[in-house]
Design goal:
Strand content: 5-15%
Structural class: alpha/beta
Strand order of the largest sheet: 4-2-5-6
Amino acid sequence: MKIPLKEAVIVEGRYDKSRLASIFDCMIVETGGFDIFRDREKAAMIRALAKSCGVIIVTDSDTAGFRIRGHLKSLLAEGRVYQVYIPQIAGKERRKRAPSAQGLLGVEGMSRQVILEAFAKAGVLCREDAPFREKLTKADLFAWGLSGTAQSAQRRRQLLERLGLPDYVTANGLMDFLNASMGRAQARELVQELFGPLPHQ
């Protein structure tokens, strides 16, 4: 049974689209890989979707996928944008003769369960009943040692690993994900569990 979504889902290619179309009943838009960098018409459509129904960005968790994700984020200054990250799992899709350059499975190679867990972690499948949650800010990331210090990158990597997220996620991407999936209070508890007591704020 397909799961209905109000938002449009943005993916890299047709095989990713086919995989998600087998799980979700929603509009799915392909970027055509790096074509989105020069396809003004498609970029305009994605911006319009973000303003009207919201968009969910799902790219591969490799370098190319994160370049595309970053470009999409730069396009979408307005509207509702949700970031879904698939885990970094080594492997090769059946249709391919050889694994990708980084040896990771893409969206098309993920199981239904893994995809659903990734969407749930991002808060996409349970927002309607979710209570109000205070959002964390860049100031929180700094106070918690996740940005602006010599140890910040290592602390972020540890937190990303705990969350089951790729290590390419930036500080801003981490903040967006934490706000969508748990909010400030729960995020603070998790950071304290990993790194010890935090300054009172």
